[in-house]
Amino acid sequence: MIHKITVICLLALSSSFVIQTSARVELGRVGTHQLRISDPATGSQLVSLPFLKSAMSRGRLDTVDVASSNLQAVQGAFSGFDARFTYILRVTDGSAAGAWFFLGESSATGDTVEVLNDGFAGKLNQLEGNESFAVHALYTLSEIFPEAGHFLPAADLDLKAMQVHFYDGREFQKCWLSNGAITEHIGWTRAVDGQLIYAGDTAILPGASFLVLDPRADASVNIRIQGVVLKSPLKVPLYAGYNFVASNYNQGLTGPNAFLLGKLGLKESGFRSSVSQQEGDKVFSYDAETGQFGARFYLDETTGEFNAAASFQPGDGFVVYNSGEAYLWSPIN
Amino acid sequence: MKRNLSFLLLFLYAAVAHGDLDWGGGVTRFTTESGEVLGLESGFAVLISVRSGQLIDFETFVPNVPGELVTAGTILSDGTNVNSVLAVSYEFHSGYLLNSAVPDLLIDEQEILGVTPDEALFIIVWDSTTFENDLPTDDSYFTVLPLYFEGDRSSEQAQTSGGVFSVFTNRVHPDQSLDSRWLQLIAQYGGFNTYANFAEWVDSIHMVADGGLDSAKYTDSNGNGRSNIEEYAFDSPLSVKRPLEASVEESGLAGSSNPELCELSVKLRGNNSQLSYSLHISDDLQSWRTVGVEYMNQQWVCADPGIDITESVYEGLGVWRVGLHVDATLHASFFKFSSAIN
Fold it and tell me: Which of A7, A252, A270, A311 has its CA 20 to 30 A from that of A154?
């Protein structure tokens, strides 16, 4: 049985409050989360990163050029990008709040930036051009899972090393922690075109869950992740087929029932109801003891509720099977 | 020759993903015939399943064309045995066929290949430096290993799934305990059909005149004191040893002063069905008891309950090193092997 210990430190930054004629403005919330990645008697864990890193810049969009997939914010919010990281732009208000976009090349002045893969977790043509936004660097594999070899096992080959498996919608892409014996580097490694390349800079997508495999039978490892508690939850794309997903901390997660499956916003976002487990959309939970996706849940067409109770905390992962068209899931608001 | 490549796409799209096979070489480090670790240019792996019957005896199997052995999607038939080549890979890195580097065999790909539930899984590892024109020949080196879930040999051999939902793939690879100690496996079946008859063998060392084959059997062409037919049937002389005593080696006849358990070692030819072998045991050199030693289904067997085959290691060119344990209850002190050629 996996025991995840969630420690939420929602640090209201009271010292940063600004008083303006008796109005109170909250500047932000941050938190930490303890994530169990190795547990005795289990071979793998399905986990996620429930936080984004703090924003590196903020601004308000001045121009949205859908044809050329460019955004403009004259305040120069798109500068200082580090080539080692993947950056996203998160829309923080308006009807598109929670949508996000991969960022590419920016102009020398930092005023404009290219948007990559428009439509992945938001659509440029649905922006009005005056939204406020925040730019975040995504966590990388090596940031979350240290490569120093102190508490995560590095080895000559994959099966003896710590592994992280990302599901790409069709199969798992497998990274493992090399000790440098058969690779030209020490650290996270994956195979590409017959070469074993460094993978420590692999970006971990928000809202995605992934498998962590520890080859040691008796290891107990927790890691601590920190980041910002968002006002508007990040949207998570749910494409046709299987999607490895998770919710993320946001200000809507309050109260004792916040983590119940029925409260996660799936049915409000487009999850299709059905009359049995054999058809329609489904949710699968992961059983770390067996290494299998055991329990499955469907949205009962008659009652409008899920057929059984389930709870998924931030940091947990689960699988959504989408039987129809792709849609964006907004994990509660 | 089909070669799979892997690439990383961290985007979600449509998929059917239950019953996938995450296959590879586990922790086994494979080498070439010459002892070099396999790499991208020298290793070639084939995932094969038994659709009906048994695993084909690839030592003797002759495909319609050599490419069938290394092409995914090929159905190989040998009598009632039907095997399917499911996937191939060259992802060898410093001798390891990394599970993480070999693309999973997805359920929809298995459906295209006509895979049925419960097909037993094996891996064939080729030394592709022994290929010609990128294809195996009769002289190419390879080894066959059964696959187990998570390499757990104590569990049932890995099989294809029945399509039960499982987004999580089934990881299969050879026995987890196989490691670099087993490097010699790569050469196990190499050149099995070489010298499958005496005429071929003797022709390689002795110029035989027309009609002179019979006389060549009893000629000592290389002058080592052993006849050609003896050398052909017995690659090396019989040897015997007992625990805590030095071994005694004699050609053809071995003895022990202590009529207790004995360990015999001999090199026999397994690729010529016209050869038959017998072990003769005695405690007085006068009366001899004869038991048959046969090559069956890729291993050597002896029907006598007092004699166990303790070692059966293929050494190439049709020759096996065979170890025999003679139980003390047989009260045998003297041993000899004989061979008859039909």
Answer: A7
